[in-house]
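Need NAD(P)-binding domain-containing protein's 3D structure for a figure. Predict it.
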Amino acid sequence: MLIGILGLGTIATAVVEGIAQDGHQITVSERSAANAARLAAEHGVTVAPNQAVVDASDVLIVALTDDIYEAALGGLTFREGQQVISLMGGPSIAAVQALVSPAHVVAKVLPFPSIAQGGSQVMACGEMALVTELLGARNSIFQIGSEEELHHWICAQAVLSPAVLMVREAAAWLAEQGAEPVESERFLRELVGSSLLASPCDATLRALDTPGGYNQRLRQHMVETGMTSRLMAGLVKLQQG
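Structure prediction for NAD(P)-binding domain-containing protein:
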């Protein structure tokens, strides 16, 4: 495919790294000079001004920040037959479509940085054929029925940061007790990651519910001191904006 990337922040850069090996001709915008130069050196992408990116591409991946996307897209000329994927969580598909016509916005797609290596979860709303062809071989695509529902998924995925923080703090505590710090963190990351992948949460919780066991006792302490109620309150706050 002839693919153009408008905007080159963390996620867009990771997407380029994840698809660069698939034989596409990729042109990226020059806005983020350091990222663009590295991608050109490591993956052979072409770096160009925004309009040249559009002109060179049949598929455009738009990953501009909320504060500049209207001005940036509004100053460009698109053509009939181009397909656009938005990586922007804020603007609606309709808002982007109004700026890129006569090109067609096929989907809003929200991956994670791990898409650079493959194995990312990808939240996607819209038409799935192009998204699956481009990203589906090495990643898990979760098709979401509407942009309103996608907003709920965006809220729920925010549990990742608190979960990572808990693992980091537990690893730091373990290191304070004398364990080697790097091994402490690696052990807990692998333990939590493999346990979550091995079975659904309810089954894992049942397996970790030995009466009087360490897992049961710590979980009960955290629930009793407000962990789950604070989580629900935080999700509602995110949902309400």
